[in-house]
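Sequence in, structure out.
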Amino acid sequence: MAKEKTKKFKQDRKLWFRIFKWFIKIRYRRPKFVYLGEKPTTQSVILTNHIGARVPLTLELYADFPMRYWGTHEMNTSFKMLYKHMTVDYYHEILRWNIHLARLFCLIAAPLTYLFYKGLRLVSTYKDYRFRKSIDESIELIKEGNNIVIFPENSEDGYLDELKEFYPGFVLFCERALKRGYDLPIFASYLRRKTNTFMFDKPIMFSELKKMHQNKYDMAKYLLDRTNDLGKMDLKLIPKYGT
């Protein structure tokens, strides 16, 4: 009797976007995934570093579990707002590009980025009262079985190999989810630039994190340290997990 073929996992994305992703694969190689504990399946929070577009693109192309991403609302509201955010906030202030060069480059980069983020169907995040809407939308996505991917690093000084700070917005989300009956496992993860290795730490349940740290900033610092540790581990000492 012939073995039944395992159906290849596909993110829940529209057909045009799945075709669009084939072209992106030319630029980004498949990483080595290393899991120090269990692998994410459904209904979890994944915290990771950013490295510009590299980490979200790598996850979207190669991770085989359902995901929806948090993204600042400037990237997800209108093309005009996206263009301004990319030229001023990202290329000029974070990457330190000349502003005129940034504007010229984004005439090409911004339309492609706009398409990409529309295809991802980002959960828009805010720095004001509208953040509650982001949390409510994320909880609905958790109910549907999605994992929520969050990039909590403070990138004011650029995307560093050693992350300096995590914003604690994800703690507020996990707290609200717990009140609604969802004790979410949190995965710290880290993509190593040089070796193209994607490290995933053992998950910690939010309820356990609350027992260890009462303050949201302490929780964020604890997970920041775990994330940074993933970038420093000696890979030779890690058993051959992952794909």
